[in-house]
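User: My collaborator sent over this chain with a note saying "see what the structure looks like." That's all I know about it. Can you take a look?
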Amino acid sequence: MKYLVGIDEAGRGPIAGPVAVGVFAVREKIQHQMLNFFPRGQVRDSKKLSPLLREKIYKSLVVEEALGRISFSVSLASARLIDEKGITFAIRLALSTALAKLRLKPSEAEVLLDGGLKAPKDFQNQKTIIKGDEKEAVIALASIVAKVSRDRKMQAFARKFPGYGFEIHKGYGTRRHYEALAKNGLCPIHRQSFLKSLK
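Assistant: Without extra context I'll predict from the sequence alone. Here is the result:
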């Protein structure tokens, strides 16, 4: 195989905002050199890292991508799509879109995916790994780019739809978020299918 690819999603469970799928790819001949670039213990499930550390790693990945050493992409599927087609469809579409952005030949890629994710069938060399973001660095890095990209999007939404606290809870169903919903009602980025009792 020419490339080792990791895939993970962020934002499956929130009641507002998009779901994001990140894809991270590195040439197999430099994977050990590249993946050892990050301090031991830093590269793991993005939810277990601080926002500051996630941003630091993300920015270092941007530099490495500019040098041509790695590549990554993120695709977001909107709350509207989630409501219309379901979260499974939205994740599958975002995954296919993010993977297509890298223009990898399926025959040249070994793809590792977290949890229940699956790549398109033409990527025959794929493996789904339970808690893969804790076991495989390429999946953890995909998790980080997905999480950072989604968090940035939610911060932008916080400016567009003030009063909900999106910059703090990123759309998850916290007490503060539900209190804001009781006060302000639904906004265009809420997943109505996740909030049927509030419609």
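A starting point for your reply to your collaborator: The mean pLDDT is 92.
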